[in-house]
């Protein structure tokens, strides 16, 4: 069923594609009328969106709880407050970001104006994923509004409560002709992708990302693609295994593994595997108690299809379960599970796991780990836990991944984390690796630096956002030379007109 909010914010439930055509046309007309261009209009919309977040904090927390049984802590930290802080920053800098830029100019243009205008693209499509259903949808949406675009937002149909929240709440706070929610799944998204957009921002799986990219080429529509992958972790015997276990398990079990940059599997020696499992047992008991199903801090699997997929993975790995391994279909609960002695041909190693199962593949040494990684698709993130500089260097130089992360796992992808006070090590990593971003001697805190763009490179995606980068993503830099008619300027440049005289050339 398609529910497109039309110009009056009225939900028109029917399954005709005409509704989608109408929604896009409404957004196109609004853009063409210039509704979204004035900064004051944008500011009003963004302030109203902020009011929406603040007045609906509990509703958002509840929707996340309904869809994913998200704890309040994770809901606030990873979505609600994250959105609020980003939006406050956008509102604060709106004038500065949108103002025309005046680049330096040469002597030839001394009498002219040389300006870069921050132009909206036009009509933007934002397609969200279900795993962080509010953040991944509303953050790009607010950036598109700030940059003066009209927006069609398509929440994931799988996070039902969040999609409903967005569809019901946005029309109450935002201009109904400029920001339109279209609900639906693959069929409706396919229909949407047949329309002409001026920018498409997609978050989701790599396969669907390719479909979106292909559809965008029809109209040469620029895209941002935030995609997924299978991110390995390498651990050696030089690390503090307790801290390492905590950092890996936290990255794995927030949102019960349904995170695009969750550590997917571990590579280590048998000796490290034993120590890791011992530490992991203690950590998990401390965090979730003897009956993890009763812990309020563990989310649930989004739906029964994903539950069955994960259940089959646990069942196929029965003889390799080191920790956990229970599940409850009625509750869509899968216990945090660690598998030992897994091999590259096991079922669990074929696709992105996207759930609370952490396989450990044992290897003899770092070279074998690198070979293992390089025989597979380029991962989104590579996590390395080692205090040996030569090992860190080996991994950064000899593997290909979207990014590398040293000695911690991360909430967001595309970052290289380095723990070192040795400037040579740091600069060697900066110079010899490719990643969306870097953070040295800390994790997560770089997220508070709103001046740092955030995104992947290569297989981790196309484009970057957050802070000003979000604004710039949805902005076309329109270069403009404004000449005047001063007689002297015309005289100085008159040599360009025919009949040409070679005496005007400098050689
Ligand atoms: P998905 O690709 O199945 O769905 C994403 C969106 O595409 C949804 O809105 C869905 O309705 C739509 N869609 C699904 N099938 C379609 C089709 N055939 N044609 C057109 N549209 C279609 O992804 P998901 O299951 O919602 O999310 C999980 C994936 O997203 C994982 O691979 C994860 O790694 C990735 N992800 C990446 C990031 C990031 O920032 N890089 C963040 C979250 C999730």
From TrEMBL:
Q: One GO CC term of this entry? A: cytoplasm
Q: Please give one Gene Ontology molecular function term for this protein.
A: aldehyde dehydrogenase (NAD+) activity
Residue ranges occupied by any Aldehyde dehydrogenase domain in the UniProt entry: 13-411, 417-479
Q: From the UniProt record, give one GO term of the biological process aspect.
A: aldehyde metabolic process
User: Which residues carry out catalysis?
Assistant: 226
Which keywords annotate this record? Membrane, NAD, Oxidoreductase, Transmembrane, Transmembrane helix
Family, as annotated: Belongs to the aldehyde dehydrogenase family.
- Its name, as the record gives it, is Aldehyde dehydrogenase domain-containing protein
What is the species of this protein? Arctia plantaginis (Wood tiger moth)
């Amino acid at each position: 069923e398609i529910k497109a909010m039309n110009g009056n914010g009225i939900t028109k439930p029917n399954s005709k594609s005409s509704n989608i055509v109408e929604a896009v046309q409404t957004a196109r007309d609004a853009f063409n009328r210039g509704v979204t261009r004035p900064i004051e209009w944008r500011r009003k919309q963004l302030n109203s969106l902020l009011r929406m977040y603040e007045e609906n904090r509990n509703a958002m927390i509840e929707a996340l709880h309904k869809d994913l049984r998200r704890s309040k802590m994770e809901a606030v930290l990873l979505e609600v407050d994250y959105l609020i802080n980003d939006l406050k920053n956008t509102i604060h800098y709106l004038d500065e970001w949108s103002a025309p830029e005046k680049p330096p100019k040469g002597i030839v243009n001394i009498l002219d104006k040389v300006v870069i205008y921050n132009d909206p693209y036009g009509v933007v499509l934002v397609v969200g994923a279900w795993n962080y259903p509010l953040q991944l949808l509303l953050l790009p949406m607010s950036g598109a509004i700030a940059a003066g675009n009209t927006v069609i937002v398509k929440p994931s149909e799988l996070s039902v409560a969040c999609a409903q929240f967005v569809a019901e709440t946005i029309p109450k706070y935002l201009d109904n002709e400029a920001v339109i929610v279209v609900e639906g799944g693959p069929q409706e998204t396919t229909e949407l992708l047949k329309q002409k957009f001026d920018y498409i921002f997609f978050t989701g799986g790599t396969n669907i990302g390719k479909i979106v990219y292909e559809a965008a080429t029809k109209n040469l529509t620029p895209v941002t693609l935030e995609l997924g992958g299978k991110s390995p972790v390498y651990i050696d015997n030089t690390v503090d295994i307790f801290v390492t276990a905590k950092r890996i398990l936290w990255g794995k079990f927030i949102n019960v593994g349904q995170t695009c940059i969750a550590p997917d599997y571990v590579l280590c020696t048998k000796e490290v595997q034993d120590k890791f499992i011992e530490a992991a047992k203690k950590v998990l008991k401390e965090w979730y108690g003897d009956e993890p199903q009763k812990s309020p801090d563990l989310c649930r699997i989004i739906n029964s299809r994903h539950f069955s997929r994960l259940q089959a993975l646990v069942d196929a790995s029965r003889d390799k379960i080191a920790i956990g391994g229970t599940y409850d279909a009625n509750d869509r609960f899968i216990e945090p599970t660690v598998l030992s002695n897994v091999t590259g041909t096991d079922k669990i190693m074929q696709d992105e796991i996207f759930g609370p199962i952490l396989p450990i593949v044992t290897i003899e040494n770092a070279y074998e780990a690198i070979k293992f990684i390089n025989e597979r698709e380029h991962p989104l993130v590579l996590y390395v836990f080692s205090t040996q500089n030569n090992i860190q260097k080996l991994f950064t130089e000899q593997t290909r991944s979207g990014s590398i992360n040293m000695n911690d796992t991360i909430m967001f992808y595309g970052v290289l984390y380095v723990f070192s006070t040795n400037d040579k090590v740091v600069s060697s990593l900066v110079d010899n690796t490719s990643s969306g971003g870097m953070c040295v001697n800390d994790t997560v805190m770089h997220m508070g630096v709103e001046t740092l763009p955030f995104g992947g490179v290569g297989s981790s995606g196309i484009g970057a956002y957050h802070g000003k980068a979000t604004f710039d993503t949805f902005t076309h830099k329109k270069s403009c030379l404004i000449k005047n008619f001063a007689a002297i300027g015309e005289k100085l440049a008159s040599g360009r007109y025919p009949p040409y005289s070679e005496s005007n050339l400098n050689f």
